[in-house]
Amino acid sequence: MNDRFEVPGRLRNTSLALIAVGVLTLIGGIATLLMGHTDVDKARFWAVLLHDSVFFTLITAVSIFVQAAVSLAQGGWIVAYRRVPEAIGANVWIFGSILAVVLFLIVFTVRDAHGVNPIYKWVTEAEPGKDKILFGKKPFLNPGMFVGFTIVALGLWAFFGRKFRELSIAQESAPKNDTKIYWKVFRLSAVFLFVYALTQMSTAPWLWIMSVQAHWYSTLFSWYTFASAFVSGMSLIMLWVVYLKNQGNLKLVTTEHMHDLGKFMFAFSIFWTYLWFSQYMLIWYSNQPDETFYFKMRQQGPYSVLFYANFIINFCMPILILMARPSKRNYFTVTFMALIIIFGHWVDYFQMIMPGPLGEHWHINWYEIGMFMGFAGLLIFSVSRTLTKSSLVPHNNLLLKETMLHIS
Amino acid sequence: MAIKKFAVAAYDDEAVLFPAVRKVRKNGFKIHDVYTPFAVHGLDEAMGLKSTDLHIAGFIYGLCGTSTAVGFISWIFTSDWPINYGGKPHFALPAWIPITFELTVLFAAVGMTLTFCYLNQIMPGVKKHVFHPRQSDDMFVMAIELNSQTPENEVIEFLKNTGAKETSVQIAEAGWWYGRWDKKEPYESLSAI
After folding, report:
1. Phi and psi at residue A224, to the nearest 5°
2. Of all helices (H) and strands (E), which one includes residue A83?
3. What pLDDT score was predicted for residue A145?
4. Which domains are delineated in chain B?
5. Is residue A124 part of a domain?
6. ipTM above 0.85, yes or no
7. In this complex, which of B41, B55, B94 lies closest to A284 when CB atoms are compared?
8. Is A48 helix (H, G, I), strand (E, B) or coil?
9. Neighbour tally for A298: CB within 10 Å
10. pLDDT of A192-233, one tens digit each?
């Protein structure tokens, strides 16, 4: 069976072209926005970089989480296309490094004309004479904690992403039916879930995203960003599986496996809505001014288009289109919905980050779209390269037979 | 439903049951149902059962629940008995979403359960003919509907050739009925069809 993947020229050229677009956009951004005259332009330059690097880091890190969760549950359904999340997870370090550079540059170097950090106001304003509330949060929200948590979180994600793939490939050359690596992955998965719970599901979104509007807080916020990342991460895996199927690889993957991924896209879209709404309704109901200003700006202010688009794209479309069983088993609908969901959650992260630094001066224009294309190109380029380096069928995996017989 | 005549075959092994089911279908006999002590995977495909439309019914029940909740609550709080709760608008949609959601789930769940019972003709307190006393113990029982085109001796002979341990011809009510087990089944007074 031919289970090696070779990057087709067209895919490589597309990804390189996208990266080129991203680099040109970055240069254009430096020339026009960073060197621009207004503080808003400078803030836009950094906020967009932050938005895209956070988004891509989180949705790729989901692949590590999926592997860990499935290994711990001893699930066989994913084994048929396990190399895809492995390849995505092994490239988290690329996006993590970019994110770390962007975050540290923002925290340590970016200041506007008044000496205030335009993205993370707590960096400069958490002083007793300036901002009492931010000063009260200083024990947690300070550059030292920020850098420490960021390095630990991204470092551990990068480590586990590469480690899981390494172990999975090591299993191929292990003696037949040897369970040593299997149980090692099992134990490491438990450790990773612990790490992931303390980073993605709590601290990381507080520090990276919620602290953009540091006066506001929501206890649900990290869960909500996790749900957002998870559903787009599953869509990303789906896109790769469909692509590889179309190239004639992944012969073990059947409609049953696609149906599983489709269920994840459907169910977690609803899970995302549940958290999105829970956060919204509690704040709407209690009506505290220090909480409602967050939603006033988004729902009634300049972001209302994005607010409602977010709800329609990420809830109404998946629930109506993906509810029926045939649509989850149809390659066109799942591909279409995967693209829609990734775009929708990109918009979701956009409206989490932009209102703080940009106020009403938000754009989705050449710079935002160009940066997105650049990151997407980097993702395609790196993941497709990683996929070529090993067989696409995890030979000798203990659950390989189970995955062949899998019925969703 | 109706009183019909059945040829009944009891098997003691899944491995015999599957080819038998396929042969019976291939030969054009109409399978009334197959009764097994546990869920046998793949039997539905072997019997040629289509996937159910129960979930479409569930969707419709859910929509009924949603519209009942939204309609009723909005009627109460906007026209029948408007109350000012902490300065919220009378038409306070976000506050109603949890109840709307619950009612959607409730309608869908109850509606689907009842529909399921009706489709399978089972319900607490409702009786149904048992073709073989061991069909819930260790035997796999297949009931075939007979008609004028399928003479019983021929079908019984065919079933014996497929590996059936026991065969019989029964005249029985095909659906459910109200009653008690200690009463005679209603058809027993009838003469053979």
Report:
1. -65, -45
2. helix A83-89
3. 93
4. 3-51+138-189 (3.30.70), 54-120 (no CATH)
5. yes
6. no
7. B94
8. helix
9. 20
10. 999 999 999 999 999 999 999 999 999 999 999 999 999 999
Q: How far apart are CA B141 and CA A208, in angstroms?
A: 63
CB atoms within 10 A of CB A317: 16
pTM value? 0.88
Enumerate the β-bridge partners of residue B7.
B144, B169
d(CA A189, CA A29): 41
Q: What is residue B181's predicted lDDT score, i.e. its pLDDT?
A: 57
Contacts of B86 in chain A (CB under 8 A): 287
Domain-embedded: residue A1: no
Q: A22-31, A32-41, A397-406 — which one is most confidently predicted on average?
A: A22-31
Residues of B in contact with A281 (CB under 8 A): 94-95, 97-98
Would A4 be classed as within a structural domain?
Answer: no
In 10 A of CB A281, how many CB atoms? 15
Distance CA B10, CA B163 (A): 9
Q: CA-to-CA distance for B168 and B166, rounded, in angstroms?
A: 7
Tell me the residue range of the domain where A224 lies.
Answer: 9-404
Task: Classify residue A2: in a domain, yes or no.
Answer: no
Amino acid sitting at position A138: K
Is the CB of residue A187 less than 8 Å away from at least one CB of chain B? no
> What is the torsional sign of CA B42, B46, B51, B52?
negative
Q: Which two tokens stand for residue A82?
A: 């396990």
Tell me how crowded residue B63 is: count the other CB atoms within 10 A of its CB. 13
Tokens (6 digits) for A18:
């996208």
Looking at chain A from residue 304 to 333, which residues have their Cβ under 8 Å from any Cβ of chain B?
Answer: 323, 325
CA atoms of A273 and A224, how far apart (whole Å): 9
pLDDT tens-place string over residues A95-113: 999 999 999 999 999 888 8
Q: How many domains does chain A have?
A: 1
